[in-house]
Structure formats: structure tokens, C-alpha cells
């Protein structure tokens, strides 16, 4: 049994209530045993049975649930810094894609890389994410786009899940774009996805979810419906990249198929918002992508007003969001999307866990859930996301065990 006391503010982030309801407790204590939370409440009310337990002092800091990055493209080879410069000089994302750059360029590099190379590189990313207080990461394939290369990426994630402390949720994104070799017959690629790739992923249990990029330059809603239905048959939850570069009915489709989440939604329609609210689909906002592509962000306020839970994620990928700094994405959710710090925190914890089907295990601090949390060197949530720093996290705990700690925190350790 362990007790963390000396917490200036503890944000439980329980799932009920509105987006901004993070159910904070001032001067709090947190008790856990093995990997599971036993008690959360005001320190003054700590039950006597826990008073003799091993005690840690948070030093008057903020404690939050471990952050959940519910949308990343973690494993890939090569970078695309040249495209970063081209976009600044005025070329659009679609122009670059049409000339063989963009996702297709990452596919060429990723196909050529070995499982070992991809694993080593992704491990480095995960180590830095862990230090930011991130305890769960959703990881998409989608830079292979043939059977072998897609399975290679998902095996990288399976290895990372076994070897790394961060919890991994894998998503099959074989329907990222139509690969060059199928450009003249995209439906043949859809058939390959449905008849060979998805069943293979399901058979090896290599992914929890299936994702489709619904966009004029990628897949139509009709194709996506078929792909997600095949995914469901293989036991995979549905997710969509929807309405990013143009509105094309992606949000409506997410509601229709009962998706866990629809992500991006920069161009979502009023009908799409209403449909997502009715079907309780999580909207995943990706403000780093809006920032890098210099595009208007998801209209988060309209979604929140309609009762749609809005998650915040990094979209880490080598093109449109080459950063896995989730706390930066959260601060951008505040400044670009007019979300309050509390709303952004709920979006990067319990709603993000919901978006990857992990809400029963992680994403909030309450008895019975995993002891996944981070100690943040700030007095409260507002101060943390307002005073942006390279890293304000001083300790990351997963399943009750410290997996990352800064020297700053060790100085305050007692007991
Ligand atoms: Zn993405």
C-alpha cells in the first residue's frame, strides 16, 4: 500500500459530467496497492487504515491521471523536413501529396526499414513521451500499405507493448491512402484490405481498432463503411480520420457505424455534430496538425455545446504533426480551439481513454482503476497549461510503479 500526499490539486477526471468537469480535490491524497487505486480524497480525510502506509510527498504539486495520447502514427522511417519548408513557401498538403511526397514518401521509407530499426526509433519516442506524463499511447499502422509491411508495423507495436512501460493500443490503418501501385484501381486495394489484410490482423490479434482516412484524396464514405464493417467482423473497433481537409460526411459515417471516435473534424458539418452527439462518438481534436498545416482547427466549442466529448491528441507523424508533445497540443487546444485548461485535460485523459476503448482501465483517478498518474510541477491545471514549459512533469507512474522521475522530484521524496 502506498500513499501520495502533499498534493495541491488532484484532478480526478472522472468521466461523468460536462467537458470541463474534472472533479478536482484540493490538498488531496491518493492511495494505491499493487497496480490499483484504493482511495482518493482530501488528505485530511485519509482513512486511518492507510496512515501507516509508505508515504510519498508531492511537494505541493498538481497530480493528474496519466495522459493518454489517443492518436499517433508512432512507427515510421524517414522524416519530411523538406515538406515543412515547402508548405511554408506556399505549397499545399495535397499538392505535395500529388507529386509523390506526403504519406507516400513515408511509405517508401517505412517499407524499406526493418522491424528492428522501426522498434528502436519508436522506443526513443516513447521514452520522451513517458517523461511528459504520458502513460497510454494509441499507435497506428498505415505506412506499410501492403500485407507484409502493415503486419511489420503492428508487430513493432506488439513488441513495444511487451517491452515498454507505456500502455500501447494498436490500430490498423491500412486504409491510410491508396498505395501508388493501386492508383488506377482503388477498389482493388479496398478488396485486398477486406479479404486479406484485415482478416490477417484479426487472426494474429495485432490490433484493437481499425481506422480509415475518409477524404477526397484517400477513401470515400462508401469504401470506409465496407472496410470498417470488415474490421468489426475481425473484432476491431472503428475509428475514422474524418472531415480534415474538406467536409465529406466522415462524422456522419462515424455515428452510423458506432465508431469509438472520429478524429480531425476541422470541416465537420452541423449534421455531423448532431449525429455524433446522438451516437456518443468521441471527437478527437488534433491542434498540432492545425498549427503545422496552418488550417482552422476543429470547432471544439460547437461540439462541446452539442454534448460531444472532445479528446485532445498529438497526431504525431512525420508530415502534418511532427511532435509528440501532448501537453503542447493541450495548450494549443486552449488557445486555438477555445477550450479551457480543464476541458483540455479531460480531453487528454478520460475522454482519450474512451476514444481507444480503455476507459474501464485508465484515464481517471478513482478507486478500482489503474494507478496511472503524473505529478506536475504546477499548483493547478490552469497554471500548468498557461505556463508552457519544455516539461513540467516530475514523475510518471504506471500501474503503481514509478517509470520516470526527474531529479527535482527526488529531492522532495520522504518516507
Ligand atoms: Zn492521423
Folded structure, characterized:
- By secondary structure, this protein is an alpha/beta fold.
- 37% of the residues lie in helices and 24% in strands.
- The chain is built from 16 helices and 15 strands.
- The chain has helices spanning 81-88, 93-98, 103-112, 115-131, 147-163, 186-203, 221-233, 250-256, 270-279, 287-293, 300-305, 326-337, 341-347, 350-355, 381-386, 407-410; strands spanning 2-11, 24-33, 36-42, 54-65, 67-72, 134-140, 167-175, 209-214, 237-242, 261-264, 282-285, 310-312, 373-376, 393-398, 401-405.
- The longest helix is centred in the middle third of the chain and has 18 residues, at 186-203.
- The model is unreliable at 411-415 (pLDDT under 50).
- Zinc ion binds next to loops.
Radius of gyration: 21 Å
Give the mean pLDDT: 96
| SS element count, helices | 16
Strand order of the largest sheet: 5-6-7-8-9-10-11-12
Q: In angstroms, what separates the terminal alpha carbons?
A: 13 Å
Indicate the multimeric state. single chain
Main sheet record: 8 strands, parallel
Molecules bound to protein: zinc ion
The strand count comes to 15
The chain-level structural class is alpha/beta
Strand content: 15-25%
Unreliable segments of 5+ consecutive residues: 411-415
Helix content: 25-40%
Shape label: globular
Amino acid at each position: 500500500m502506498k500513499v501520495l500526499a502533499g498534493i495541491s490539486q488532484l484532478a480526478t477526471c472522472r468521466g461523468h459530467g460536462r467537458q470541463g468537469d474534472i472533479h478536482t480535490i484540493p490538498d488531496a491524497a491518493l492511495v494505491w496497492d499493487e497496480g490499483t487505486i484504493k482511495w482518493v480524497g482530501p488528505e485530511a480525510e485519509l482513512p486511518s487504515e492507510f496512515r501507516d502506509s509508505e508515504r510519498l510527498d508531492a511537494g505541493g504539486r498538481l497530480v493528474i491521471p496519466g495522459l493518454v495520447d489517443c492518436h499517433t502514427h508512432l512507427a515510421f522511417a524517414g522524416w519530411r523536413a523538406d515538406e515543412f519548408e515547402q508548405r511554408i513557401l506556399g505549397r499545399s498538403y495535397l499538392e505535395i501529396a500529388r507529386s509523390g511526397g506526403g504519406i507516400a514518401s513515408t511509405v517508401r521509407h517505412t517499407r524499406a526499414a526493418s522491424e528492428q530499426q522501426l522498434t528502436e526509433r519508436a522506443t526513443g519516442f516513447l521514452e520522451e513521451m513517458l517523461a511528459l506524463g504520458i502513460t497510454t499511447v494509441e499507435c497506428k499502422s498505415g505506412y506499410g500499405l501492403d500485407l507484409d509491411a502493415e503486419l511489420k508495423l503492428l508487430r513493432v507495436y506488439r513488441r513495444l507493448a511487451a517491452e515498454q512501460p507505456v500502455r500501447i493500443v494498436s490500430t490498423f490503418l491500412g486504409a491510410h491512402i491508396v498505395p501508388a501501385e493501386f492508383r488506377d484501381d482503388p477498389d482493388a486495394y479496398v478488396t485486398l484490405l477486406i479479404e486479406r489484410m484485415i482478416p490477417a490482423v484479426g487472426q494474429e490479434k495485432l490490433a484493437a481498432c481499425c481506422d480509415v482516412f475518409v477524404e477526397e484524396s484517400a477513401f470515400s464514405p462508401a469504401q470506409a463503411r465496407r472496410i470498417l464493417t470488415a474490421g468489426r467482423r475481425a473484432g476491431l473497433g472503428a475509428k475514422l480520420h474524418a472531415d480534415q481537409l474538406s467536409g465529406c460526411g466522415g462524422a456522419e459515417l462515424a455515428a452510423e457505424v458506432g465508431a469509438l471516435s472520429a478524429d480531425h473534424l476541422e470541416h465537420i458539418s452541423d449534421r455531423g455534430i448532431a449525429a455524433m452527439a446522438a451516437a456518443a462518438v468521441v471527437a478527437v481534436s488534433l491542434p498540432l496538425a492545425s498549427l503545422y498545416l496552418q488550417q482552422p482547427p476543429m470547432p471544439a466549442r460547437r461540439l462541446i455545446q452539442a454534448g460531444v466529448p472532445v479528446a485532445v491528441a498529438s497526431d504525431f507523424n512525420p508530415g502534418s504533426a511532427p511532435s509528440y508533445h501532448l501537453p503542447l497540443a493541450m495548450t494549443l487546444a486552449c488557445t486555438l480551439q477555445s477550450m479551457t485548461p480543464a476541458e483540455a485535460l479531460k480531453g487528454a485523459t478520460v475522454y482519450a481513454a474512451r476514444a481507444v476503448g480503455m476507459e474501464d482501465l485508465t484515464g481517471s483517478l478513482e478507486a478500482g482503476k489503474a494507478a496511472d498518474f503524473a505529478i506536475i510541477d504546477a499548483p493547478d491545471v490552469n497554471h500548468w497549461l498557461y505556463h508552457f514549459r519544455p516539461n513540467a512533469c516530475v514523475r510518471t507512474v504506471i500501474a503503481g510503479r514509478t517509470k520516470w522521475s526527474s531529479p527535482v522530484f527526488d529531492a522532495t521524496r520522504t518516507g
